[in-house]
Specification:
This protein is mostly beta strands and about 150 residues long. The protein is about 5% helix and about 40% strand. It is built from 1 helix and 12 strands; from the N terminus they run αββββββββββββ. A hairpin with a 3-residue loop joins strand 3 and strand 4 (about 40-45). It is globular, with a radius of gyration of 20 Å.
Length: about 150
């Protein structure tokens, strides 16, 4: 039974490695986004070129670019809010679960020099059960197949 539970959780998770994005600093990027039915985890990598150190305040958010809805961070998973880290590091930040329709988000911090990473792509996987196929014949005898989602 526990194996079935683990398999269900694995199947329900979606992972996006190195998604398309536009960071406002050249030394930071989102390396991975994991989506489950309970949370969204953002992996934020700093390459160490930031000589003043890296710090994440406790109020970063993700904003759905299509709807404008904001999702506040809920947990620092491998670091402490407000602590300065030197050198290259990867921060894991937990957010609430995003709706399955969310396909592009912006990561934003508060503060005087916030990290802003816009246009983070989270491709929506289409389900084949949601597709309908319509077949139409034209008057010259050719068959046209149209896939409608």
């Amino acid at each position: 039974m526990s194996v079935m539970l683990v398999m269900t959780m694995v199947v329900a998770a979606q992972t996006y490695n190195n998604p398309r994005q536009r960071p406002n600093r050249d030394y930071i990027k989102v390396t991975k986004v994991e989506r489950t039915k309970n949370s969204t985890i953002v992996y934020l990598h700093v390459d160490g070129k930031n000589t003043s150190g890296s710090v994440i305040d406790k109020f970063p958010s993700l904003t759905d670019e299509a709807t404008g809805k904001k999702y506040q961070a809920t947990k620092a998973l491998n670091f402490q809010w407000g602590k300065v880290y030197q050198g290259a590091c990867t921060f894991r930040i937990q957010f609430p679960a995003l709706p399955s329709s969310t396909s592009v988000v912006t990561y934003r911090e508060t503060g005087s020099k916030p990290w802003i990473i816009s246009n983070i792509a989270l491709p929506i996987k289409s389900s084949s059960s949601n597709k309908k196929t319509t077949t139409t014949s034209s008057n010259n005898g050719k068959t046209i197949i149209i896939n409608v989602q």
